[in-house]
């Protein structure tokens, strides 16, 4: 109620209010206070929708896609996988529509990458593992495209290695062992190359 009143009395500050609500949702999420996280994310969505696209529709669409992804991840951890998957598909659809209209948009590709991996993580309960494999494959496809843009971009390369690890795990779950080993080998190849390029990168050395 306090947020709604603030947004009503200070409409010029709605964007900042939405960002504050989303940030509080993130704090609650990482503190494992999932009900509070959901409430803040829902408030952020409502506030952002009230703000509208204004003069920056790209930023608006990416914020909405991100909030839907956060809401989906939260529902997954709250034990609601079907709601989680619906919200993650909603995030994917929004980011994909923007990417279709603006090919190569980095922000949209990053949103898609994050949503696809979250969707795969939320499909572990399904008896049919193919949708999970497909989601991780989508994640891997986008991660490879982003990594190829800058071979020295360590975070992008780590995402690519993570994608190969996720694909490998999914394939191993259906006993496609040769394919899983090939995927693991790709992940290790990326990590080994990163370690050789920057021996001081503790994150990569931990992954290895």
Describe this entry's structure for a reader.
It contains ten helices and no strands. It is globular, with a radius of gyration of 19 Å. The longest helix is centred in the first third of the chain and has 21 residues, at 57-77. By secondary structure, it is mostly helical. The termini are far apart. The model has no long low-confidence stretch (mean pLDDT 90). It has helices spanning 2-9, 14-30, 34-51, 57-77, 81-101, 106-121, 130-149, 154-173, 177-197, 202-207.
Using the alpha-carbon principal axes, give the shape: globular
Which series of helices and strands comes N to C? HHHHHHHHHH
Determine the number of helices (DSSP H or I, runs of at least 4 residues): 10
Distance between the termini: 49 Å
User: What percent strand?
Assistant: under 5%
How many E-type strands?
A: 0
The average pLDDT value, as a whole number, equals: 90
Low-pLDDT runs of 5+ residues are none
């Amino acid at each position: 109620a306090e947020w709604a009143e603030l947004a009503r009395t200070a409409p010029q500050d709605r964007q900042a209010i939405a960002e504050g609500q989303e940030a509080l949702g993130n704090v609650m999420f990482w503190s494992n206070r999932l009900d509070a996280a959901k409430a803040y994310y829902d408030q952020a969505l409502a506030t952002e929708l009230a703000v509208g696209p204004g003069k920056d529709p790209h930023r608006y669409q990416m914020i909405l896609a991100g909030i839907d992804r956060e809401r989906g991840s939260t529902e997954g951890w709250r034990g609601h996988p079907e709601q989680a998957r619906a919200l993650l598909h909603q995030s994917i659809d929004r980011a994909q529509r923007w990417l279709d209209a603006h090919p190569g948009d980095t922000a949209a590709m990053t949103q898609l990458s994050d949503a696809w991996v979250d969707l795969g993580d939320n499909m572990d309960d399904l008896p049919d593992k193919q949708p999970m494999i497909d989601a991780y494959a989508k994640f891997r496809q986008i991660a490879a495209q982003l990594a190829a843009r800058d071979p020295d971009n360590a975070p992008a390369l780590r995402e690519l290695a993570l994608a190969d690890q996720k694909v490998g795990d999914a394939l191993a779950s259906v006993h496609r062992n040769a394919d899983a080993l090939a995927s693991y080998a790709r992940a290790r190849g990326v990590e080994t190359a990163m370690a050789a390029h920057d021996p001081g990168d503790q994150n990569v050395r931990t992954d290895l």
